[in-house]
Amino acid sequence: MNSMTPQVAAAEFRLVIAMSDLVDWPADDEEPKSNHARLQAVFDALGAPISVAPLVAAYFNDTARAGRGDVHVFEFDPNGIDILAIDTFNDPTDQLDLIELFVRCADHKAPQVSECVWKYFNGCTVQIYASQQAVCSRLRDVLDSDQFPRPIGGGRFLQRQIRHAAVQPFAPADGFAAR
Question: Domain boundaries in the chain?
Answer without folding.
Answer: 12-68+77-171
